[in-house]
Amino acid sequence: MNIKELRSMVLSTVKEIQLNERRSRRLRKIMEKANKHILSEEVYEKEDELKQVLDLPYPEFVKELQAKKADLLKTIRGGLEDGSEDDDKFTVTGETLTLKQLTPCQNEIDFYKSVTWYFKQSGGPPKSKQGPKNVPKLLDGGPMQPADFAGNPIITCNKAFIVDGHHRWSGMFAINPDCKVDVFNIEFPNLSGEEAAEMALKVAQLWIVSNNQQPDISKGKKAGPVNVLESDEGTFKKELEKVVEIAESAGDMEEVRAAYSVPGGVKRGFPEEGSDEDKNTWIINDIASNLAQMNSDNAHAAFASDNNRGIMPQVADFTGAPGPSRMKKDAKSGEVNYVPSTTSESRENNSKNVVLERWSKLAGILKD
Q1: Among 60, 21, 1, residue whose Cα is nearest residue 202
Q2: What is the 3-state secondary structure (H, E, C) of the chain?
Q3: Cα 278 to Cα 78: distance, rounded to the nearest angstrom
Q4: 120 CB contacts (<8 Å, ≥6 apart)?
Q5: pLDDT surpassing 90 at residue 236
Q6: Are the C-beta atoms of 51 and 340 separated by less than 8 Å?
Q7: Which residue ranges make up each domain of the chain?
Q8: Bond into 143 cis (ω within 30)
Q9: What is the pLDDT of residue 344?
Q10: CB contact set of 296 (below 8 Å; sequence gap of 6+)
């Protein structure tokens, strides 16, 4: 068959398909859709491998993702190229939640990172020496906002589990467990409970990988010697006595005591008219009691028994303060490939569309 005969056959076939203008428009739409659904080889060939990594328990997932992230990067970013535009979509919405309704997804909460920043001592969240300026708002019930914590929102899942921001949460809990906080909340269309929470951790790590070129995917340090989730009220009191003594010596306790002298603090029992020693003792006992409540009522999720702080996602740390907002946008578009299609699924989804696209391309190539 020569080129003219081939051209004639192609044009004849296309002409037969395009019997009228309506069918022609429909064909173009099908072909445009086919172009979007054709799986790129680089995404396609790693789909099964990514699925195997995602199926691992979270600690093993982090280890494997760290080792394979360079090879899997294009597949992780291929949520719109794996044969379905909708399967990787999830929602991230702004919600206002109460601190005590949240469950940690890591097995350690550092005492010092939770409380020392209120006393202008290092060791806490961003701007850890900012002192007690947030205490009045916390005692009055909030809601606390990302701007109160260097612009970094707490990220939750299903309005119940903490994904990112454990020490911002624990620091606020130490002052008032009943306070409300504005969060970014992740929800998946077909997942619930702890299954959704574990997937949220994994998706956050996938998103971090897809948005930065840093060698590590986690850079949190293990908790210090006092883990709130494993200590008792007596231990908290002893440690707080040390913290208060340092703050008193530095001249910072006056500001702390003043921060508690608000309606919310007085309502909780703060001795506004008492001596400095009485006020210090009340603050120590109140924080210790709140942390003990966290220990008893807000134990970590069952699946998180091996989730130390060092393997937790830290979205803002890796991608900057706008990171959570960008993740919200990407969640809606489905760009992060957390539901990789298997090889057989991908072929089935695309085989018919590929044929149509090839006919279209061939007719274009052979035009005069």
Answers
A1: 60
A2: CCHHHHHHHHHHHHHHHCCCHHHHHHHHHHHHHHHHHCCCHHHHCCHHHHHHHHCCCHHHHHHHHHHHHHHHHHHHCCCCCCCCCCCCCCEEEEEEEEHHHCECCCCCCEHHHHHHHHHCCCCCCCCCCCCHHHHHHHHCCCCECHHHHCCCCEEEECCCEEEECHHHHHHHHHHCCCCEEEEEEEECCCCCHHHHHHHHHHHHHHHHHHHCCCCCCCCCCCCCCCEHHHCCHHHHHHHHHHHHHHHHHCCCHHHHHHHHCCHHHHHCCCCCCCCHHHHHHHHHHHHHHHHHHHHHHCCCCHHHCCCCHHHCCCHHHHHCCCHHHHHHHHHHHCCCCCCCCCHHHHHHHHHHHHHHHHHHHHHHHCCC
A3: 60
A4: 129, 130, 131, 247, 250, 252, 255
A5: yes
A6: yes
A7: 3-87+338-365, 91-319
A8: yes
A9: 42
A10: none
Q: What are the structure tokens assigned to 191, written together?
A: 């997942």
CA separation for the pair 129, 120 (Å, rounded): 4
Question: Is the pTM value of this prediction over 0.85?
Answer: no
CA distance 149 to 163: 16
C-alpha 112/C-alpha 123 separation (Å) is: 6
Q: Which candidate, 191, 148, 165, 197, places its Cα nearest to that of 317?
A: 165
Q: What is the distance between the alpha carbons of residues 76 and 53, in angstroms, rounded to a whole number?
A: 11
Gyration radius (Cα) of the chain, Å = 27
Distances (CA, A) of 314 to 88, 136, 152, 271, 367: 21, 28, 10, 39, 54
**Buried/exposed code over 65-94 (b: 16+ C-beta within 10 A; e: otherwise):** beebbeebebbbbbbbbbbbeebbbbebee
Q: How does residue 258 score in pLDDT terms, banded at 50, 70 and 90?
A: very high
Structure tokens at 171: 């620091």
Q: What is residue 29's predicted lDDT score, i.e. its pLDDT? A: 66
Q: Which of 163, 138, 158, 156 is nearest to 148 (CA)?
A: 138
